[in-house]
Amino acid sequence: MSFQHDAQMNYYGTRLATCSSDNLIKIFEVHYITLICNYDGLLQLKPSGQTYPSAELNGHTGPVWQVCWAHPKFDNVLASCSYDKRVIIWKEISGKWQRIYEWSHHDASVNSISWAPHQYGLTLACASTDTAISILSFNKAKIWTHQIIAKAHEQGCNAVSWAPTVYSTSLIHSDGPLIRKRMVSGGNDNFVKIWSKL
Fold first, then answer.
1. Residues 129 and 153 sit within 8 Å (Cβ to Cβ)
2. CA dist 5 to 37, 65, 72, 82, 89, Å?
3. Is 188 buried (19+), middle (13-18) or exposed (0-12) by CB count in 10 A?
4. pTM of the prediction?
5. Which of 38, 70, 174, 186 has its CA 20 to 30 A from that of 118?
6. CATH fold group of domain 59-197
């Protein structure tokens, strides 16, 4: 039996990605959902149609902790992180899921991942037990680059998440320049930290 560690719907709610302790990532097609009331009065969401995965992604050699869909502006892109110290970025190309990038420079489990708002490009933050946060970016030259925040949390990082974009004009109009990138992280040192890049 495998434990399910994470389940994430894509932007449109038509696909579900799950990850588990058996090292697998599964993709399900979820076109619509039926709400069922059981005899005991509990409500249950049941996907209509396909209940088996449309794809199984093999690549990790340890339990997969989290999956995260990129904004659809970048097509069907999914990131995963694992106890095996790696982050894998997957992309659906011609109906088949392929590994397009692998980040294996952490020294311990990668516990959490989060895509930045799409206005910042294809950028992923990764939090690791090795105390560091890495930020992976796909640049205009179509090359993956990285930045490391060393010792972000003294006893390891458990969570990372990006803040929504902030514009210099107003909340209504988004034609001004972006002010800054912000993200938050949480660690085993009992701290939550907000990071900002001006």
1. no
2. 26, 5, 23, 10, 18
3. middle
4. 0.86
5. 186
6. Methylamine Dehydrogenase; Chain H (2.130.10)
How wide is the angle at C-alpha 176 spanned by C-alphas 173 and 180, nearest 5°?
110
Beta-sheet strand order (sheet of 181-187): 157-162, 181-187, 192-197
For residue 167, the 8-state DSSP code is B
Domain ranges across the chain: 59-197
State how far the Cα of 138 lies from the Cα of 123, in Å rounded to an integer: 7
Nearest to 160 by CA among 113, 117, 124, 198: 113
pLDDT tens track for 40-94: 655 555 655 556 789 999 999 999 999 999 999 999 999 999 999 999 999 999 9
Q: Which of 171, 158, 114, 162 is nearest to 132 (CA)?
A: 158
Report whether 136 contacts 144 (CB < 8 A). yes
Tokens of 118: 């799409």
Residue 116 DSSP one-character state = P
